[in-house]
Amino acid sequence: MGYWESESPDATNFWISPELAAFYEFETADGFISIAKVRESYLPESREILAAHYAACWASGQSYAVQTKLRRSDGSLLDCMVHGEPEFDAHGEVRRVSGMVRDVTEETSALRRLAESEQRLADFVSTASDWCWESDASHRLLPYPRLLTGNDALQTVAAGGRTRWELAYAPEDEEAMARHRADMEAHRPFRDFAYTLIGQDGSRISIRTNGKPIFADDGTFLGYRGTSNDITELKAAEAKLDERTRALREAHRLGKIGTWSYRLDTGRSVWEPELFHLLGLDPETFEPSHENTKSYFMGDDAERFLELQKRVLRTCGTEAIDLRILHPDGTVHDLAITCKADIAHGKVIGIFGTVQDVTERKEAERKLELLAYSDPLTGLANRALFKRQLGDMIENCAMEGRSGALLLIDLDRFKEVNDSLGHAAGDELLIRVAATLRLELGPQAFIARLGGDEFAVLADGCGTSDAALTEFADRIIAKLSGPVDLTEGEAFIGATIGIACLPEHGLAAETAMRNADLALYMAKEAGRGRAQLFEPIYAQAVQQKLDLGRHLRHAVEAGTLQAHYQPQVDLRAGCVTGFEALLRWSHPERGPISPAEFIPIAESSGLIVDLGLWVLREACRQGRAWLDAGLPRRSVSVNVSPAQIWSTNFETAVSTVLAETGFPADLLCLELTESLFVDHTEQRTSHTLMALSALGVRLALDDFGSGYSSLGYLTRLPFDRLKVDRAFVDGISSAPAKRKLLGGIIALSRGLGMTVVAEGAELSAEVDVLRELDCDLVQGFVFSQPVAADKAPLVAARIEREVRPIQLIRRQVI
Ligand code: C2E
Ligand code: MG
Ligand code: MG
Predict the structure, then answer these.
(1) Ligand 1 and 760: CB distance under 6 A
(2) 567 lines ligand 1 (CB under 6 A)
(3) Beta strand 257-263 pairing with 268-271
(4) Which of 42, 361, 377, 731 is the most buried (most CB within 10 A)?
(5) How close is the Cα of 556 to the center of ligand 3, in Å?
């Protein structure tokens, strides 16, 4: 700073202080210097200004202060403030002008910087989406210099004059706003206070604001300063996200879906809350990891799940698996899990997955399966389930090198119970059998009812030796055999079992079934009530029999069977009194086959009922034809199998055939064997026999002496004839004991009012003995083989011609 003065307007005596001289870089001895020289230091425009003000000051006494620019000898520019002040004499005339020169370079540049910085701030603020705000000591917002555009709610903020809590804000902000007000009234700074303004048109605009209190140096509170920004869009996005998240959570909760993720880098699993909830675990205390969850899985599910995850990581794929866990509440839950590789920038970084609780669905499936796979009557597995289980068992046995067995159980005499005691009794019996099997074999055994009276058992670990298996089967037979008390009465049943060893007797369920069936067939053939292990050598024979059965059925359907007739000769009268109809069948490949071979097959396949009816009808038709041809009244005997008698309404079938053919009932003789009484109760059989007898039909007990030979039946049942088996007749001429026995039988039968027929007489010597014993009728090759229908009358005529002379001779001898 320096001082100057001048005593004349033309500055002839212009004086500067030594400081000023130093400032101007002049050398003066006394301080006087030419003003023009001084002015030269200034930049041209400053020079003019200085000159003009100096002149004006002299002329009108005006003081001045002007800012000027000055260049120093080193070239630097300085800002100077030059003052001029007039001094007046007594007349008010300017006498002298003096002043000061001040270097304001520093000051000016500071001000410039300030202006620049203000501009910069203004630029930032004007380009940022945030805006600044201020409020006074009573929290009234001050008008904002830059008008906020767009929305009337924002205009309100910009206009100022109100406190924030006097603005029209959304009702849900009430509480938060009250807290905010308390903050401001306590002059506390605040951050990120968000609220929503409601415009006059109802539009909403969300604002986030920060603020800090401003105090004067003496601590007086002046107001607040802060920034705000419009977060309407952010809020909307947040709300949408929230809503989506909530909806997803809700969907997860409803669908019982939990999600989880696993990161390879951290080795940590993260579970969503719903997953904890699903598994009944506490998110606070349970740390999700393979180790910690392992014990909750059932069976080897933990390992299966781990394997799956490894596979997903390896293949970068997506996989699903069904698992079972033990819930902490003790119940078992079914889970459906899906895993997907988490891939970022082409690299696997982990796995994420979903877990769904599908217990209810699985339960329903299991129930449905149970319904689809169980026998409604006994509650045992049905055939479908049995087949599946059998397949599994064979597979397991083959894989693990174990052996098992398939037992097919067929009830003996079940049909009789059904027929004699009714279906309800049959059902009751089946239920009882199922219960017995369950009790005997335990809950672990797989037992099925395949249909009708057929049951099956899959035996696992009951011993592998044949002996152990048969012993096991015999135990079952023993348990099932014997009288059973039913509501309707007592039933006496038995069981026959066929066994196939697994896996050697069938690598497929079908084969195993067929072989067990063959074994069962063999057991039945061998006389029922026993167990038979499948043996491959028999398989062929049995298979042949089954094939034969098929062919036989074709023959029945195609009507290619024939009946042959064997005469029955009355020794006393010397005439043929009747014929026995005997079936003849010629197999397409094997030629003629004996009824002794094919009748049992027809019986075991059930074909016998149709077959028997065919013979019956054919024989009656033939008998009628002979009568119509004017031949003598001769009886026709027809063999009837037990199954026919047991089949429903046999008597009706007989009377229908008689009516249809017009054959007299008293000429029809039905031949029955004792096997009729072996398998069934007498009650039902006798009912049918009585009914047949009432039709006028004759009944003969065939093959007497070959089986049980119980005379008891003869006394109780309406038999007209006794056919003595060939075994009694054979060799009668040479064996006196046999002769005596036969004599006794004949006498006895006669006493019961029955006709005795001797079967299978082959020698005339035998005929002689029979005549001596006074046997009524004789049938045998000695007279004739069974012959075709057209030959029978001729054969009868020949026999009568031959027998009479013999008789006459005998009479003459006597
Ligand atoms: P069956 O009812 O006892 O018939 C008598 C069998 O003895 C017949 O055998 C007959 O040919 C045979 N035979 C007759 N006289 C003699 C003889 O002097 N010596 C010998 N060795 N045999 C003699 P076939 O025709 O082979 O019939 C065998 C069995 O097949 C019959 O025994 C009968 O039980 C059954 N059968 C035949 N046809 C039928 C039928 O239509 N229905 C039923 N259910 N069974 C039938
Ligand atoms: Mg017979
Ligand atoms: Mg016989």
Answers:
(1) yes
(2) no
(3) antiparallel
(4) 42
(5) 23
